[in-house]
Specification:
Layout lengths: L7 E6 L10 H6 L5 E8 L2 E4 L8 E4 L3 E2 L5 H4 L17 H9 L5 E7 L4 H6 L4 E3 L5 E6 L4 H15 L6 E5 L22 H8 L4 H9 L4 H17 L11 H26 L5 E7 L9 E2 L2 H7 L2 E4 L4 H5 L7 E7 L11 H11 L3 E5 L6 H15 L13
Parallel strand pairs: 1-2, 1-14, 2-6, 6-9, 9-10, 10-11, 10-12, 12-13, 13-14
Antiparallel strand pairs: 2-5, 3-4, 7-8
Helix pairs in contact: 5-9, 12-13
């Protein structure tokens, strides 16, 4: 008796990896993946495009939508998405999706929400403000009513593109300190997870009112955060704890993130056809900041159709997974960026043992030819029927 071992596998991709490259669709289909997760709204980046016939380096100067935004939705609003420049002109997403049509690959939209440095530069009031008073222009504060309205409408518009059968929403929650800014020079003082969280807590006017509504004095709270970080700056020890002061602060943040996630998913569902899949890039720690937004596992799996999560974080979601929900393991396959395509088969089996039901590979467009050859071999190995008596999730 044999059992198929390969779960549904998707690869992340930028539109410029496909748009203008006639060879790209067949190359992707030949990898053994069943899906492409194609960026529709993305932050600023500098990216290699190692196989494109017309370019090698793409510089996306600011966060942008990679399709024409709908004027009826955005005209007259102070906060609106920015169209892309020459790195993805016009409907780059639509052209890439059309090029992939006929390959047999499903297409999901990939939508980055609370990460936009141009927004913060042009509208400083929208940014997270730390306890020292520093603004993070790359991190929109999701407690700001206009920011929340922007992100919810952006989720609906960017997710439901023609040709998409689902979406994967990234940074649908709090963003904070951690970010590779241009010519980043923040490595002089090591910051553990607690220090990163403390430095990510927002004290903008909206969050100050939120803390006050929870019964906390926002000025005293900011002072406590600064005191907790003082040993880090002095190099005398790790960050201290906030003790009882943390409860109202964390309650406000968890409720705010949860409200954004509920509103964004509801907006996508209202705009999407039946059967459209909605996944969130997520972390099981509800206070986590960043691309994998902090969530309550039971809540988010009752809200969306599933999550995309890192290895080591999947088991917390698996413990709350309802029947039919997707747990997609996000596995890096770009050797030059710390990925290990040569270990993909073993890493995938470990992720399946942790509870994954699907795989996502980051990132087919950035990977070298050698990396993609290793991916092709690993997926072929995973797709071969397992011999009777052997658990296909076990590493050989």
């Amino acid at each position: 008796m044999t059992t198929p071992a390969l779960p549904r596998t998707g690869a992340f991709l930028y539109p410029w990896d496909v748009d203008g490259d006639p060879a790209a669709p067949a190359l992707l289909a030949g990898l053994g993946v069943r899906q492409v997760t194609l960026a529709a709204a993305y932050h600023s980046t500098r990216a290699l495009s190692p196989r494109h016939p017309a370019r090698r380096v793409v510089t996306a100067g600011h966060a942008a939508v990679l399709y024409p935004p709908d004027p009826a939705r955005w005209t007259g609003r102070r906060l609106a998405p920015y169209p892309a420049g020459d790195w993805a002109p016009g409907d780059a997403w639509g052209r890439a999706a059309e090029a992939l049509d006929g390959t047999g690959l499903a297409v999901h939209s990939w939508v980055v929400l609370a990460h936009n440095s141009r927004l913060g530069a042009e509208h400083p009031d929208t940014s997270v403000v730390n306890a020292h008073g520093d603004r993070y222009p790359w991190a929109p504060c999701i407690a700001h009513p206009e920011v929340r309205a922007l992100l919810v409408d952006l989720a609906a518009e960017a997710a439901v593109r023609p040709g998409a059968s689902g979406t994967e929403l990234e940074s649908c929650g709090w963003y904070g300190y951690a970010h590779l800014h241009a010519h980043d020079k923040t490595g002089g003082v090591p910051l553990d997870d607690r220090a990163q969280l403390l430095l990510s807590l927002c004290f903008c006017p909206h969050c100050r009112r939120g803390y006050a509504g929870e019964g906390a004095d926002p000025d005293a709270l900011a002072a406590a955060v600064r005191a907790a970080l003082a040993p880090v700056w002095a190099g005398t020890g790790p960050a201290g704890e906030l003790g009882a002061r943390a409860a109202p602060l964390l309650a406000w943040r968890a409720r705010t993130a949860r409200g954004l996630q509920e509103a964004a998913v509801a907006a996508v569902r209202a705009a999407a056809p039946p059967g459209f899949r909605i996944l969130l890039h997520a972390d099981p720690d509800p206070y986590r900041c960043g691309a994998d937004a902090g969530t309550d596992p039971a809540h988010v799996l009752g809200l969306a159709d599933g999550v995309v999560a890192r290895p080591g974080r999947l088991a917390a979601f698996a413990a709350h997974r309802p029947p039919g929900a997707t747990l997609a393991a996000n596995l890096s396959v770009v050797g030059g960026m710390g990925g290990a395509p040569g270990r993909l088969a073993a890493d995938a089996r470990r992720a399946l043992a942790e509870g994954a039901t699907e795989l996502r590979l980051y990132h087919a467009g950035l990977a070298s030819d050698g990396d993609l050859a290793a991916v092709r071999a690993a997926l072929a190995e995973l797709g071969r029927p397992a011999r009777a008596g052997r658990n296909p999730k076990e590493t050989p």
